[in-house]
Amino acid sequence: MSHGPCTDRRQLLQLAACGFGAAAFSALAHARSAREESEGRRDGRHHAPKARSCIFLYMDGGPGQMDTFDPKPELRRWNGQPFPARMEATQFNNNGTTLASPWEFARHGESGLEVSALFPNLAKQADRLCVVRSMTSPFNEHTNANYFLHTGVGLAGRPSMGAWVRHGLGDVSSNLPGFVVIDGGLIPPGGLECFGAGFLPARNQATILKPRGSGVSFVEPLVSPERQRRMLDLARVHDRALLERSASDAAVAAAIDNAEQAFRMQAAVPELVRLDDEPESVRRAYGCEDEYEPTRTYARQCLLARRMVERGVPFIELSMVPVGQDRWDQHSDLEVGHRDNARAVDKPIAALLQDLEQRGLLDSTLIVWGGEFGRTPFAQGSNGRDHNPHGFSVWLAGGGVKGGHVHGATDEFGYKAVEGKCELHDLHATMLHLMGWDHRRLTLRFGGRDMRLTDVHGRVVRDWLA
Amino acid sequence: MRGRWLGALVAGLGLVVRASGAGGEERAAPSWSREVAPILAARCFACHGPDAESRKAGLRLDRREDALRAEDGLDPAVMPGDPERSALLQRVQSQDPDERMPPAKGHQPLSAGEIDVLRRWIEAGAVYERHWSWTKLEDVAPPPSQGWAWRTSDRFVEESHAREGLVPAGDCDGATWLRRASFALRGLPPREEWLAQVLERDDAALREALVDEMLADRACAEHWARQWLDVMRYAETRGHEFDYAIREAWRWRDWVVRALHGDLPYDRFVMEQVAGDLLEPRIDPETGCDEAQVATGWWWLMQASHAPVDARLDEAERIDNQIDVLGKAFLGTTVSCARCHDHKFDDVSQRDYTALFGVARSTRRVYAWQDAHGRGAAALAEAESLRARFRERLGASASDLTSRAPDNALWQFGGEHFDGWRASGGAFGARPIAAGELLGVDGKSVTRVEVGAASSRGLLMRARGALRSPSFTIESGDLWLRMRGAKAYIRAHVDGYFMGEESNLLFESHKQELDHPDEWRTRHIDLSRYVGEECWLEVVDYGDGFAELAWVASGPLDESWKSARAAGEATVKHEDSAAQPVSDILVRLAQLASEFPAQVVVLACEDGSGRDAPLYARGRPSAAGELVPRGEPEALGALRREYSSLAVEPVEAKFPSASRRLELARELVDPAHPLTWRVAANRVWHHVMGAGLVATPDDFGVLGSPPTHPQLLDWLACRLREQRSLKALAKELVLSRTFAQRNGPASAKAAELDPQGARLSRRPVRRLSAESIRDALLATSGRLVEREGGPPVAARLTDFMQGRGRPEASGPQDGAGVRSLYLEVRRNFLDPFLGAFDLPIPNSPRGGRSVSNVPAQRLALMNDPFVRELAGSFAEWISRQDGDVQARAAAAIRRVWSRPARPEELALAAEFLGESPDAETWQDWAHALFLAQETIYLP
Which is it for strands A129-136 and A422-423: parallel, antiparallel or unpaired? Predict the structure, then answer.
C-alpha cells in the first residue's frame, strides 16, 4: 500500500511531544520543501537524461510502412499480381494481390532520407528523423497490439510507458500532471487502459486532456473562485485539526498537500490550454487555421504538447484525430484513408519539430512517431492493406537521437524485417535510456514479481543514439 | 521430482537450536522465512532457484543439499558454520566485478545488512526451513494475558508488544470505534441510533450487540462482496476493442452478496465457486434457484478480445487468467508465474501449472437455464409420461420409418441415449426422440417425427435447453449437421473460444441461427482454418422454438445428403379420432406448455470432456510437450497428504467430474491444506484492520511479505477452519482491542519501533475505499437508495470517456443512488469518480487496493457535479433539522463524521454561515464538510 508523499515523521513526532498545532503544520510545510529540494537533485532517474520530456505521436491503426518511410520499388513490378512470397495468416484473411504504394518517395535534406509524398512538410525535417524500418510486434490484432505498444504486454492491466516514466520520477510536485494524453478524439481500441497505471500507484495514470474546452476532467470550478477559496479554507482548518488529532498521519498530510495542488491545477490547466496566447504566426505554422478540420485539431494537440514541454510535463502522448476514415487502419480505400490521416498530422508535426528547435527545446525532448504495427504489401480486397506486425516503420527525433538516419530494413516487399530487426521492447528500453532510466532497474514488485516495462526483454539500440 | 524443500528441508531441521527471535542476542540466527529466504529469493533464485531452464552454473541455492555440495575441490556455496569458506558469502562480498554476485551488469550488490543476515545464517548452521505458508497449520495456544487483551486474538498482540518493548497507543473513544466498525463491516457510516447509544453507554456488551446488528445488516454483505469482487476481477464487459457486455455477470455478484449475507461456511463458499455445477444443488428458498451453479460464474469474467488469429493462444491466455485468479484468490499463490517455466521463487512447477490448465481446459463456459423450485422439471416429467402414453395408444407409426445417416456420420440420434452428448436445461429431455414419436402439438393435430432426432420440442416448446457434444479434434474442415428448427442455433466452439457470439470475424460459420422449422437442411460449418484444434458443438434452443438434430458428419459429403428435404422425412399429422383418442393428452400438454415457468439464465461452468494439457515450452501453445494429468498441483497434494490428520469430508456429487474440478474443490478445503485457511483469515484481517498480517494478501510465496504475527495468523486460520464462519472471524477482530487503538504512537520510542503501525501498537488513519466514499456521501446526503441486487445501473459517462464500445447514453449522474456495488463495471469505461480513488482495473486479483493520494481526487470532490449535487441534498437535510443555525450545524457534523461537533467547529460554522444563511451558503458549507479529509479518512 503506498501513501504518496511522506513527511519526516520523526521530526514531527518530536514536535508532537512538545505540543501540536500550527507548529506541526508549518513543520510539515518545511519538511516538504526540504524534500523537494533534495529530490530536485536526484528526481528518481538512474543517469543524466538526454531528454527530459517525451512526446509520443501515436499513429493509431498502423500506417503502411511502404507508404510512408520505407520505399519499395519492387512492389511496382509485382503490382496487381499474386504476392510472390509466403503470406502469413492475416486478421481478415481476405488477401488480394500485391499492392504498390500510390505515393512517390523522394530524398530530402542533407541526409537524403526518403519520405513519401504523404508528408510534404515533415519531409523538410528529414535531417532530424531517425527512421527505424525494422520494427516488429508479436500481435496483429489492434487491442493486443495497442496494449503491447503502450505497456510491453499484450493484455490490459499493465502500466503504460508514460506511467512508468511518471513513476520513475518519484514524488515530484507540479501544477500539472506528469503523464498527459492529449485526446484528438480517437481513444484507441483497448480503451483508456492503454494509458493506465496498472499496478503502479494511481497517481501515475494518464490525465486525459482535450484540445478544447476545459481540458481536464473536473478541473472547472462549479462555484466562483471566492466561494471555492472560502470552502477550501474552512476544510483546511478542519484538516489541520484532524492532522493534530491523528498524530500527523502521513496520509492525511499528503492529502492536504494535494488539496492545494488541485486548487492550483484549476488555474494551471486553463492557462495551459489557452492557445489564444500564442502569436498568430505560430498558430498558423502549426495549422490551427488550416481549412481541414482534423489538421486544426491535431495542430492544437501539437501546440499543447509544446506548451507542456515548456512547463516540464515529462510524458505526453497524442491520440489520433478522426478524419472520417478509420484511423490509419485502411483495410480498404488505402489511398483516401492514408491521404486524410497524413493530411491531419503532417503540418502540425513538422511545425512542432521546428518550433521546439527554435526554442532550444528539441535537444531535451524526445519525439517518437509510430503505430502498433504496419500494413501488408499485398492488398486486402482490392485497395486496402491488412495488419502486418512482421516489419514496420517508426521514427524518433530530438534529444539524444541521431538525425537523418535509417536503421534496419525490411525485405524487398516491405513485408518482414530482415536487417537490424527490433522489438517494441527495444523501443521502450531506448526511450527510457534517453530519459534517464535503465529499463532493467525501473521496476515495481507486484504479484510476486519485479515488474518492468520491458518484462524480461529489451535492449538499448545504440545505433539510434546521437 | 518434487522433493525440493520437502526432503531437503526436513534433513536440515533440528540441526541447530535457533535463538527464539526475542531480539537482543547479538548473533541471533536470522529467521529463515522473514529474513534469509526473501534475500535469496529476490537476489539469487532467478538464476539459482527452482527453475532448471534459467539456472546458471548448475548451482541452486533453494535446496540445502545442492547449496552444500562441493564440486571440483572448490568451496561449496554454503558451508554450515563457516561463512568465510562459503562461496556464497565470498561472491556477494567480492570487489572484483567479474566475481561479484549478483552480476554487476544490471544488479545492485547486496547491502551490508543483507550480507550480515547471510553470514549469521551460515554461522548458525544454514538451516533451511519450509516456506512459512507451506508449513503445517497447527492450532496455537494463545499466550496468557496480563490484562491488556479484550479478546483472545489480542493476547497474541499483547505478547508481541511485551516481547518487542512496545507500549500500545491507548484506546480510541466510542464514537471513533463505532465509525471504524461500521465502515469496516458495512462500508457505510453508522446509523444515528447506534451513535446515540454509544455516546450514552459505551461498554463491551453494547459493542458486541452493535457488531451483531451490523453483521446481520445486508449492507455488510454488500461491502464484503465488493471486496471479494476485487479478488475475482469482477467486470461486466470484456474490455478490448469493443468492450462487449458479459451477459448475466451480475447474477454471480448477487450470489456473492447472498452467500456472505447468509455467512455460507467458508469451505462451501470455496467449493461452490470452484465446482458448484458439480455439487448437489443448494436451492435458495426465495428464488428457488440452484445457488451452487451460479457460484461458478466468476470463471468467465476475464477480459477477452474477438477475432484472435491464433485460437489456441487465445485459449491459453484465457486459462492463464483463470489460473491466476484461482491461485491467488484461494491459495495466495502466484501459480501463473509457472506458465512458461518452473516458478523462480516458489515451489510451483510448470507441471503444476499445466495440471490446473487441464482442469480449466476440460471446463466449459455455458449459459445454463435454472429451473426455479424445480417447477419446470415437474412439468417436463409429466410431459415425458404423456408422450409415453401417446405412444402406447397410437402404436408404431403406419409408415416404414428408417432413420438414415451418411457413412461418415460422427453421431446419429434416435437411439436410447445421446451418445456422449449432454442435455441441459430440460428442453431436450433425457433421450433423443425415436421415429414415430410425438413431437409437437398444433391445435388438435399432432406431429410425429419421421426420423429419430435429438429434439427440444418432444416435450414442451417453451422449455429452453442445450445439447452439447463431447470434445473432438478437428480432422476435416467440413462439418455437416442435419437439422431443423427456429429460435435456436448451432455453434462450434473451437479451443473454447466464445467471443464469436459478439463478433463472428474469423469464425464466420461457427454459429448459425436456425430459421427453418418445417424443413430439414444440412448445415455446413467451415472449420478449415482450425484443423487439428479441439472443438465441441452446441445446439441451443433459446426461445419459444425448437431445434432438432438428426446426425453430424465430418468430411466430404455426397450431394444427396445436402438437399433441403430428403425423401422419407416428411412430417405427418395425426388427427384425433375415436379409435385413437389423444385429445386428453393434447389438452394436458397444452396446459403444461402455457404454464411452463420462465427459466433463469446464468453464466456458469459445465464439465466437458476430460482433456489433459501438454506442457507448453516457454508457455507457447505452438510448442506442446508431454501431457500432464489434470488436477491439483502435485506440490500441494503432497503437503496435504503429509499434514492430513483430519479426513476430508466426502461431498455428494451430481455428476462425475471429468475435469477433476470437483476433486480440486474438495482438496482446496481440506482441513490439512496449509494455504487455504491462512489466506482467507488474512483477508478478513486485511479488510477489518486496513492492512493484512501478510501485507501481500494475494501472494503468500517467497516474494510476498511474511506475516508480521505468524502465530496470530495461524490461530485465526484455525478458528476459520473450525467454525467456517467469516462473520465470526470479523466479529472477533472488530471487538478486539487491537482494532480500537488510537492513531498516534504512545511514545517516541513506539513511533520508532512501529513507524507504520505494522507491529500493531497503534492504528494508523485509514482512507475509505472508492465505493465507501461514494456510498457515504450518498448516505450522508440522504440520497442512498437500497436495492437487493439485480442488473447494474448503467455506467455514468463523461465527455472524457470516449472510445469504441461506448454506450450510447450515460447512466444517471448519481447512479440512481444505489450503492457502488450495483454500478455497472465496464472495463473500458470505469466510473471516473471511483477511478480517482483507486478503483482497480479488474483484470487480475486485487486482494488489497493501492491507496494513492493524487490531486485528481481533490478535483473530483471539488468539481464533480455529482458531489456538488449531493452537497445540495445534504444542505436540504440540514435545513430540515430542528433548532437554530448552530444546532443544525451540529447535527450536520454529527451526521457526516459520526461524532458530536466540537465547540471550535461550531464557531467556524457560525463564522462561515452567518446568522441566516441562504440555501447556497448552506450548500457551500455542506460541500466544505465533504472536502474535509475527515470525510474520507478514518481516524
Answer: parallel
pLDDT, position B850 = 77
- Tell me the shortest Cα–Cα distance from B477 to chain A, in angstroms: 16
CB contact under 8 A, B933 and A141: no
- Quick check: A219 and B859 CB within 8 A? yes
ipTM of the complex: 0.87
Place of cell 494524453: A181
CA atoms of A247 and A256, how far apart (whole Å): 14
Q: Which helix (H) or strand (E) holds B455?
A: strand B454-455
Q: Residue B447: what pLDDT?
A: 67
Please state, in angstroms and rounded to a whole number, the distance separating the CA atoms of residues B924 and B920.
6
B865 to A143: CB separation less than 8 angstroms, yes or no? no
Please write down the long-range contacts of B392-396, taking CB distance under 8 Å and 24 or more positions apart: B393/B580, B393/B581, B393/B582, B393/B585, B394/B574, B394/B580, B394/B582, B396/B436
One DSSP character per residue, B633-697 reads -HHHHHHHHHH--SPPPP--BSS--TTSHHHHHHHHT-TT-TTHHHHHHHHHHHHHHSS-SSS-T
Distance, CA of A40 to CA of A34 (rounded, Å): 10
| Bridge pairing between strands A409-410 and A417-419 | antiparallel
Q: pLDDT by residue (tens digit) across A311-352?
A: 999 999 999 998 877 799 998 889 999 999 999 999 999 999
B801–chain A Cβ distance below 8 A for any pair: yes
Of residues B540, B515, B538, B516, the one with CA closest to residue B463: B540
Contacts of B34 (CB under 8 A, 6+ apart): B706
| Neighbouring-strand partners of residue A378 | A98
Residue B243 sits at the chain A interface (C-beta within 8 Å): yes
Topology of B375-598 in CATH?
Answer: Jelly Rolls (2.60.120)
Domain definitions of chain B by residue range: 5-130, 278-366+609-631+652-664, 375-598, 865-938
Query: Which residues of chain B have a pLDDT value below 70?
Result: 1-27, 105-106, 345, 394-403, 436, 438-449, 565-582, 645-656
Pairwise CA distance, residues B551 & A356, whole Å? 71
pLDDT tens by residue, A146-179: 999 999 998 878 999 999 999 999 877 678 889 9
Q: Where are the domains positioned within chain A?
A: 52-225+260-464
Q: Could you give the CA distance from residue B891 to residue B906 in angstroms, rounded to a whole number? A: 10
DSSP secondary structure of B791-820: SPBPPP--TT--STT--SS---TTGGG--G
For the record, the C-alpha cell of B859 comes out as: 478535483
A203–B828 C-beta distance less than 8 A: no
8 A C-beta contact, residue B651 and residue B270: no
Residues in chain B closer than 8 A to A199 (CB atoms): 850
Note the pLDDT of residue B49. Answer: 84
pLDDT for B649: 56
β-strand A405-407 against A129-136: which pairing, if any? parallel
Cell digits for B766? 485509514
Q: What is the distance in angstroms between the CA of the first residue and the CA of the last residue of chain A?
A: 41
Measured in angstroms, the CA of A111 and the nearest CA of chain B are apart by 36
Q: What is the mean pLDDT of residues A398-409?
A: 96
Structural fold of domain A52-225+260-464: Alkaline Phosphatase, subunit A (3.40.720)
State pLDDT tens for residues B546-584.
Answer: 999 999 999 999 998 988 765 445 455 556 565 566 678
CA torsion angle A306 A310 A316 A318 (round to 10): -10
Q: Closest by alpha carbon to B378, among B454, B443, B463, B440?
A: B463
**Would you report the helix, strand and coil content of chain A in percent, each value rounded to 5?**
40, 20, 40
Contacts of B829 in chain A (CB under 8 A): 191-192
Q: How many CB pairs under 8 A join A and B?
A: 262
Please state which of the ranges A35-44, A272-281, B426-435, B483-492 shows the lowest mean pLDDT.
A35-44
Length of chain A: 466
